[in-house]
Amino acid sequence: MKNILRFLFLLLMFSSCTNSRYILKDSGKDKKFLIETIKEMHQNGQISQKPILVIDGVPLRFEKELKEKKLSLTKDNIEKIQLLKKEIGIKIYGEFAQGGVLVITTKSSSNEVKSEN
Asked: What CA–CA distance (Å, rounded) separates 15 from 18?
């Protein structure tokens, strides 16, 4: 019984640590918006639980950039989230894209593009 409880505790602890890399700067349930989006896509078999995020053209890998710093992004700042096809993601980002690639465009980025036209 103790071993089962230890295992469950470690599993819970591990899963919460990995998900924390996708926490937004928001408060309340909005801070887990990206986590929930990734979970839903994972349950549909579209990506792993550790996809690369490409925010306004800047790739953030789960094991590297997302481990070193927190996201400086809020739910309200997200214009759209697109899932890159796996083959395309691997061609662009290499083997790091095996888990999937989510391309996030922020509202500030889309406003910059509009103002340049």
From this structure: 5
Q: State pLDDT tens for residues 89-110.
A: 999 999 989 999 999 999 987 5
72's tokens: 């400086």
> Which tokens is 47 given?
């990506």
3-state secondary structure 4-18: HHHHHHHHHHHHHHH
pLDDT at site 16: 43
Place of tokens 């070193």: 68
Around Cβ 44, how many Cβ atoms within 10 Å? 9
Alpha-carbon gap, residue 60 to 67, rounded angstroms? 9
DSSP state of 85: P
